[in-house]
Amino acid sequence: MSNEVKKNYTNQELNAMSNDELARLGTELDDVTVAFRKERFPVANDPAEKRAARAVTIWVLVGIIAAIAFLGVYIFWPWEFKNLGEEGHLFHTFYTPLLGLTSGISIVALGIAVVLYVKTIVPEEISVQRRHDGPSSEVDRRTLTALLNDSWETSTLGRRKALQGLLGGAGILFGLVVVAPLGGMIKNPWKRGELGIMGDGTLWTSGWTLHEQGVKLYLARDTGAIAEQHSGETGSHWTTVGVSRLVRVRPEDLDAGGMETVYPLPTSLVNDGDMYNPERDVYEEHMHSVHGPRNPVMLIRLRTSDAEKAIEREGQEDFHYGDYYAYSKICTHIACPTSLYEAQTNRILCPCHQSQFDALQYGKPVFGPAARALPQLPITVDEEGYLIAKGNFIEPVGPAFWERKS
Ligand code: FES
């Protein structure tokens, strides 16, 4: 094999060789044996060749049209959330399926075009290569270039200008289909908006930050309630009027050893108990609280025998209310929800990378990659017996990032 092939060629000798000769030399030097090779269309302008090229062209065109449709939907389709019954709700519900459909068709069509091209136009060839170690010699590099040139020639793409253009266009559009959605994720982490139930847009605020502006915040549980269907003489419709997604929590709502996820609920958005008004629609605001990325808090009721052993962190001695402790649910590793509370060991487990936090020791990490304690929310009970926040978190919630001081 390669040991029998002459390897030392001068530049003059290499320059004197044609592309075919260099390609053949390359296969020999690479210990490649071409076991079988057959042109698909030995006769130029074979009608079957035209048919094959047409099929490839059609699939590339389908891919291009779908990619353009994807970009059109992504940029122009009305994507903003609309409640059931609100004008534009139907269009809004089609946004995500249309993105999936158009990007899926464009990727599949492009894939089919490539497979068809290889299966019906590129010459059939079976080559066998033996592996060898070490870097490539000058001869190898030159011959490899020649081989690539040869592949380009034999692929016949060089003379199919229309298909070349289409494939180039499809490649660019396909790239845009992949890259364009990333644009939606780029945001300025320091850009402040108005402070609301989801924070002010920066990484160190949440709905609980509203407490710093004197807003009374209840700890509220998510009931999972959805829009209700109302029927009347004029027909039926769905409405969120009178539906309360978040309701206030009292200490007696939780059993000893229990855990409940709670969200901030300002007095102005309360619609339960003696403050219930069936005419009010607070549903959307409640959902904003539920979706606030740094809002979820784990309200844990320790068993009294365990609570007696609890160790408070300096400066947080009065953050708990009796046996009730409230820790941020956002993992300090990389922000998964630390959803699992194990009552026997009083450990909070993050399912993402198995960090464990000790609920008896101010949420300090005791296992896994998380390096910071879960921030603790100061809580108490108001004169009506509802659990409320006594203050904001004293440190940013979530993973350690570059401006963290704690
Ligand atoms: S995000 Fe919680 S352990 Fe990694």
TrEMBL record:
Described function: Iron-sulfur subunit of the cytochrome bc1 complex, an essential component of the respiratory electron transport chain required for ATP synthesis. The bc1 complex catalyzes the oxidation of menaquinol and the reduction of cytochrome c in the respiratory chain. The bc1 complex operates through a Q-cycle mechanism that couples electron transfer to generation of the proton gradient that drives ATP synthesis.
CC annotations in GO: plasma membrane
Location of the protein in the cell: Cell membrane
Gene3D superfamilies: Rieske [2Fe-2S] iron-sulphur domain
Name this polypeptide is given: Cytochrome bc1 complex Rieske iron-sulfur subunit
Pfam family, one: QcrA_N
Domain of life: Bacteria
Record-annotated Rieske domain positions: 294-388
Organism of derivation: Corynebacterium humireducens NBRC 106098 = DSM 45392
Chain ranges passing through the membrane: 56-77, 97-118, 166-186
